Amino acid sequence: MSFRSNRNIGQTVVPFPVRQPAAPSHQAGRLPVLIVLHQESSTPGRIGNVLRALGYRLDVRRPRFGDGLPETLDGHAGAVIFGGPMSANDADDYIRTEIDWIEIPLREQRPFLGICLGAQMLARQLGAPVAPHPAGMTQIGYYPIRPTAAGRRLCANWPARVYHWHREGFALPCGAELLAEGDDFPVQAFRAGDAFGLQFHPDVTLAMMHGWTTRGEMDLPGAQPRHLHFEGRAVHDAAERAWLAEFIDNWLRLMPLSVMSQAAE
What we know:
32% helix, globular, disordered N terminus
């Protein structure tokens, strides 16, 4: 498949709600955010830190190890499916279960976020193919992204480079809005209603980077050597961290007002 897209990216999008001052972290009545992880040692990383700082509890599930997923998101403020070394094309039951489950937040119009593998699962749920790069290229390290006009309307201050760790990419699902693009893997961020997919990893903490670059596949085509990961972090991490905090806050404000009212009762 080709990862190049000539899709019109100038279409009108509905912007994020106008930001209000963040509620105190101790505010009662906030629904938890569903967190889906894929390895025993995985954590929600920086996304978990941002959510906790905003006052949200985390409901962590690992379907790969037998945890069930809710039949509705009425009891959650939103859901995040994180990454992992597996593929959205794998035949494992939990992979199929997670892809099928994404239909629930789409149908209920609840905030959903897919990170790397989670974004590829969202793409597959929406009918788009997921596949390796035709020339075998990977993105492992810091690589540039370019927000589209639609992306800038949603979130003004995008980082110039973001952290990646993937061997596969996906096409833009039919009807989705392209929010950010790249070079070898053009679809870097997209939106489908209240669901968002990010090919990159704004969740990675410094400790996670140390672990990944110690155990990871640093000799794959396109992968950056280990020292460049830390050099890139010193230059680009502050911008990516600030963007993530703004994005997550705005993303959760997409929760329907009726659900917010129920949580406060």
